[in-house]
Design goal:
Elements (H helix, E strand, L loop, with lengths): L10 E11 L4 E12 L6 E10 L223 H13 L12 H15 L3 E8 L6 H21 L7 E5 L12 H7 L1 E8 L1
Parallel strand pairs: 4-5
Antiparallel strand pairs: 1-2, 2-3, 4-6
Helix pairs in contact: 1-2, 2-3
Length: about 400
Amino acid sequence: MSEGFDDANHQVPIGVGVNFKLGDNSWFGVQGEYRMSDQRNRDNIMLGLGYIYRISSIDTDKDGLVNRQDNCPTVAGPVATGGCPDTDLDGVIDAEDNCPTEAGLAALGGCPDNDADGITNTDDKCPNAAGPAATMGCPDSDADGVVDVEDECPEIAGLENLKGCPDADGDGVPDTKDKCPQIAGALRLQGCPDADGDGVPDDIDECPNSAGNLTTGCPDRDADGFADKDDQCPDQAGTFKGCPDSDGDGLSDNVDDCPQVTGPASNRGCPIGKIKKEVRERLDYAARAVQFETGSAKLKEVSYVTLSEVAGIMRQYPDYNLTISGHTDNVGNDVRNLSLSEERARVCANFIIATGIAPRRVSSLGYGESRPKESNDTAEGRRLNRRVEFDLRPR
């Protein structure tokens, strides 16, 4: 203490004081001191009143950290995060946390990654199954670019447009659904080819190069269920190897001598006793004996006797009518063959009528090459197929 520079002295204070807290950072103080001097008669007593306000101890957000230590002095937060709020308690403060309400990893901006694939749940299409970033966090076992959850063939690399399945023959049908996986085919046929376009896959088509029915894939002109190649009457629907049985006697019309009248097979479908066996034989002979000029409907003279004999048979059976049918081999145009067969049958009918037989009892028609009796592959077969048949039937 100094009262003047000339009489300065040194004092040692001894005292006590009391502070009364008025607020969080303010106090009212009362203090008393006894001061001992190193000079004589200089001891003294000092009393004091004071007000204390602690500026450095302010904690605005009341989080236990004073402002100077608080990184977020206006928002309460834990000490662990420097006084800044951390709602999900993941160690990443809310201001820097991209997922503030979900505990996550600091390396991922505070967002969770359930499958630990390095992609946050919010960006991960498969948050519970680890996968690469290229497939947005979803696994792709076969690495074909189609994620497993959408891949119908997850263990075999395939095409995106086929839901991850392979297509070995490139026909647009995945191998898993392709019945012919090594041969390109149509989708409607489950990937199998159909060369003739009849709807029957080639592998089960009996006629793969000829459009046919859906049963065998073979042509069936009369739609009787018998393919033309196996149908003995390809232009007439029937159940007997493709031939009809008009009279229902168990013999198909093509082998029934009386197709409109029932009769036993032993008499070739004709009623027993009506026409003698030898008469039938003569009519069969006539079919082979009648001859024409080559490629023409002009009768050869040798045929006159045979046709006259047929007319005589009709006189023996006045209650019967005669149907004459013309037939050709398969040489030449089929339209021309049909016309030729009709002309030849008509010439024979006209000859018989000219002998005095009533025209109403004689009819003619032609079948062209459609009803061969033998194979047209041999000369003998073609000769036998060129014929005019005589069918005597009761009225």
